Amino acid sequence: MKIHPTAIIHSRANLHASVEVGAYSVVDADATIGEGCVIDTGVHIYSGVHAGKNNKFGHNCAIGGLPQDMHFDAQRKTGVSIGDNNTFREYFTVHRSTREDTPTRIGSDNYYMGNCHVAHDCVVGDENVFVQVAGLAGHVHVGNRTLISANSCIHQFCRVGDYALVAGLAKVVKDVPPYGTIDGNPATVIGINSIGMKRQGLTSDQRNAIKQAYKVIYHSKLNTTQALAELKATAMSPEVKSIVEFFEASDRGVTAHRDI
Hints:
alpha/beta; UDP N-Acetylglucosamine Acyltransferase, domain 1; 28 strands; 16% helix
């Protein structure tokens, strides 16, 4: 292992032989760091963190610190689970869960720019991009291939659907529908994430089906229940089916539409 002499690695930390650790970094007991991970300078990886392969932890990241929950008992053994191939840039923070049976979860192939934050009990999927200072409050669920733009803030217990785009400075207080673009304070739906879907390889037929579904939900003058029933009465594509299921599963309600 390439471990700087000033780094502090607990004897009960579990690091793969290929892991690199920079100056003044700390890895606590019962943390597991997988093959090919690189830990930059000044990083603190706390007890209970389990990271997979090829993750990069930038300067001064804090991984697995105590949840910012006023009622949390610091003696509880909770943790953070991280997949493979994630990049965490400088000053990124993620907090361990409040529940012993379920860690805070980050999937694979995500890119977090500087100063982003993932709070306790969040679940983040794969291939997401978080831009500078984007923040998730506790218990937020983020799907796959989303773009969470700079300085946006997502309220606790909200969900962000697959392929969604959250614009910069957005204040998100309700669920963000799959494939949608939201903006504002409070945030509203302003369209679909056409460019993101193209970049991710969705075909024109798939994008058109999503666009038509959004027209039924947001522009048909039907209420949400009626709009979903109308969609379900048709031969839904897998993408449209995921939109309908997302709306039906929402507890907080889904972000409303605003014409621009």
